[in-house]
What does this fold into?
Amino acid sequence: MRYIVVGAGAVGGSIGGRLHESGRDVVLVARGAHGRALRADGLRFTTHEGTRTLRVPVAEGPEEVGLRPDDVLVMAVKTQHTAEALARWAGRPVEGGGTAGESLPLVCAQNGVENERLALRLFRRVYGVCVVLPASFLRPGAVTAACGPCTGVLVLGRYPSGADDTVHRIAADLEDSVFRAPVVPDVMRFKYAKLLGNLNQTVEALCGPVAAGTPAGELAARVRAEGAAVLEAAGIGHVTAAELAALREGAVEARPVPDGERALGSAWQSLARDAGSIEAAYLNGEFVLLGRMHGVPVPANETLLRLAEAAASGGLAPGGTAATDVLALLSV
It folds into this structure.
């Protein structure tokens, strides 16, 4: 199997880098300054074992990749870029006949719960991944994954449910590449639980680190409580936070790294890179949508979504909003 990783940022770069190191055939797909840096200098990959340069094949897009029947497409772009990426890849011809959408498995190694729905419109075989992979991508060509002994936990399953031989083969390759990769028949239950946890990301992107007993911690608790109420009203089941934590236990623990840049979550990183967009519409925005559908008020999520999108479009640095000011807005 060859892994074509579409979006070689923090998650995609870590997955692609580890698969490459374990001897798997990998292509990283990246555009702009990051793509140019990967082509010119390789992937500068930092883990607790050290920093090394990985010379992984790089493509700017599907036009540069001749697709084969044994390819696996790994979608690792932010959700706001998923529809464009899917449209570019789905109709590409595969050696021997057919198109990528007709014959290749597509794995959504992404946050949120919208990517799989978008993918299933264009791809016959879609697989979800609940990604627990603390990593950072702050400058072109460099990715840091600072956990061990495993780089991350990747819970896999077919979408909308089930498992098959393909997902077990992918999981085996990941397990051989310094990941814990359990296969489950109900992957979306894990992804909805992760989505609740991801609500912290918007708070820390705007207000800085989240800690209990602080205004940021109070704000994070409010958005999460709204999210839990929405899922209950919508009848959407999910695993518990304790079950997610158990997957990490003894496998994904913070380790010191000799090099690389420390960072908070991916939303914080989007502001730090001045990426011009943020994933909040598919994190907080998912609960805003469900709240409106099921009559559950979600003022904290609505406010954070509005502030996050303004920060991203305005090029604001992360952590520049006082949590007390946001709480004051909610009390009006």
The first helix runs from residue 10 to 21.
